[in-house]
Structures are given as C-alpha cells and as structure tokens.
Amino acid sequence: MPAMSNYLKMGCLAILPLLFLNISLQAQVNCSSKDGLRACGLGDSHTLDYEIEPKEILFTTRSLWGNLTLPYDIEISPLTGSTFSLFSNSGEQLDINLTFRANDGEIQSLTPGNTSNFFTGTGDDAETYLIIELVTNQVPSSSSYSASFEMTLNNYFFIFNTGTETVAFDIVLNVEPNIVIRNLGDVNLGNSGTLFGQPIEDREDFCIGGKGFSSYTVNLSSINGSTGGNGNSAYELTGSNETISYAVAFSDNLASNTGIVPGNLGDVPGSFTRTTDEDCLVDNARVYISIAPVDWQSAQEPIYTDVLTVTVSSQ
Predict the structure, then answer these.
(1) Alpha helices of the chain — where are they, by DSSP H?
(2) Torsion 203-255-208-246 (CA) sign
(3) Coil, helix or strand at residue 76
C-alpha cells in the first residue's frame, strides 16, 4: 500500500501599525491652491471606460473665507470648441453631458461656459462628483477620445465675490473595439425552377456592426474548398463521392445586385464602413452564392454541402 502524505499549507500574518487618515488630508493631494476656495483631485487626466456606468470623476471642493463657509458656483468651459465633446485622433466628435453633484447631494446639469446655481460651501474638503454621460444615438468609431476642460469656482459673501479658483483637467474615454455578425443563416440551394443553361443563384442578408472602429475587412472561406480546406477550387460543395464548385461575392450595399469577388485566399478586396452598432437591428451586408450551369448540370448525387465561414475584422 503506497504511503500517504499530508500537506499543511501555512500562512503568515503580519501585524502592522494602523494608520488613520482623515479624508480631508488625503484630498489635499493635487489641490488647485492652499486657499479657502479650492478643488482637489480634479486637475489631472481622468481615464474612463465606455462600458462602465456611471462615469464619474471624484474630487473634493471647499469654500471658505476666513472662518466662514460661503456658497459657491462653478463654470466648466471646453478648451476646444464650444460644446462638451471628446475627440478622437481622427477628429471624430463624441458629445457628452456634464453634471455636478455637490457634497450635500444636490445635482445640477451644466452647460458650456455658463455658471451654475449656488452650492453650499464647506470648511472641509468635501467629496463632489463630475458625472459624464454620453449623448444618446452615438456609436464610437475610434478606440480613444479625449478633451481638455477648465472649471472655475467662485464664492460669495452675500452678493460680493470673495474668491475665484480655476482648475484645468482632461477627460479620456477608452472604447474596447468589438465587431459582431448577426442574422447569418443557412442557404438552401436547389435547381428547382432553374432553367437548363442558367446558374443556380441565391443570397443571404445579415448584419455587421460594432463599436470602437470605423471600418472592417471581410474574408469568405469554404471548409471544403482551398480557401479553408484542401479542395481544388476556392469554394466547393461535396457529396458522397464528388464535388461541385461554386462562386461567392460580398456586398455591404443591399441596394446593389452584385458583390465583390474574394481573392484566392478568400479575402474580399478593400474595406467597408461600419454603419451600425452591436444591436444590428437592420441587415446591412449580403453574400451572393452561385453555381455555374456546367457544374450543376453534371451533378450525379442528390445532396452536396459546404460550410461557408464569414470572418470580419475591425480596422
């Protein structure tokens, strides 16, 4: 009987002195000033994820004049253009909305270059948020967007302005590119109704969509043909003992009756513009399939099959 061994996994517990940090002390990192009116943690580059909601920038504000806490307002201005927008390297514009949430929970939507209503000041560095929301019906065509902004804070003693503070900051939005194919189904070819001497033809409509890219390429490969297997022709249907060659073409224009024929490796020449998002609510692409008369008229078997693979790659 083989010997049995027992293994004991042991861990070490280190006892460390506890450090109690006041939030207001932490918040003093990267402050706009040491004065009573200031923002801390905003003057930097803030990278956000397209997929994450809500998109927020956490920072702190305080509004003092001597020992008095004073109400304050804010104003955010874009340093490029006149709207709240982010831009890709290609110049594509992605519009955003900005909302400010004060330490007491009051929320106010902001407009470019206009001052907000008053917020309640605090003597401590109190947590506040800048909330970034994408304007609806926009599908990003790039993987990264950014822009620079400037926030100005003003506090008041009654109607008198007692202080002004300005903070510059950047917003970066990263988009993970994703491309999808939807609604691609089987194609049942048959010679019923096809006149002798005419090709057998059919087509399949489907959708290509996504986000984070502007264009895509297409490859069409046959599991039996030379584009994806060991066939003699690029695209082949196989029966029990024989094969039938067929031709394919691709189009991103459903109003057209013709497509682009792929090369020897199945790559469709050129690239195509993405026109919809990942939901793919409407078909926007088509594959044409045809069998020449000389091929189908000499067929000796009743059933031939193949798997045609459509591969799309974002650019």
Answers:
(1) 23-26, 293-296
(2) positive
(3) strand
CA atoms of 150 and 303, how far apart (whole Å): 69
Q: What pTM was computed for the model?
A: 0.79
- Maximal C-alpha separation, the chain: 98
- Do 172 and 243 form a contact (C-beta atoms < 8 A)? no
- Lookup: tokens for 42: 């905003």
- Residues 11 and 222: their CA atoms lie apart, in Å, by 56
Q: Is 309 helix (H, G, I), strand (E, B) or coil?
A: strand
In the three-class reduction of DSSP (H, G, I as helix; E, B as strand; rest coil), residue 31 is classed as strand
Give the DSSP H or E segment for 86: strand 85-87
Q: What are phi and psi of 77, to 5 degrees?
A: -125, 135
Sign of CA dihedral 172, 173, 176, 180: negative
User: Residue for token digits 């109704």?
Assistant: 193
- What are 214-244's pLDDT values in tens digits? 999 999 999 999 999 999 999 999 999 999 9
CA terminus-to-terminus distance, the chain? 63
Q: What does DSSP say about strands 144-157 and 107-109: parallel, antiparallel, or unpaired?
A: unpaired
* Joined tokens for residue 209: 């969509």
Q: What is the four-CA torsion angle of 110, 115, 120, 124, rounded to 10 degrees?
A: 90
| Dihedral sign for Cα atoms in the order 95, 108, 156, 67 | negative
Tens digits of residue pLDDT in 237-274 = 999 999 999 999 999 999 999 999 999 999 999 999 99
Q: Are strands 178-182 and 200-211 parallel, antiparallel or unpaired?
A: antiparallel
Contacts of 305 (CB under 8 A, 6+ apart): 237, 238
Distance (Å, whole) CA 156 – CA 177: 47
Q: In the block, which residue shows the tokens 């874009």?
A: 78
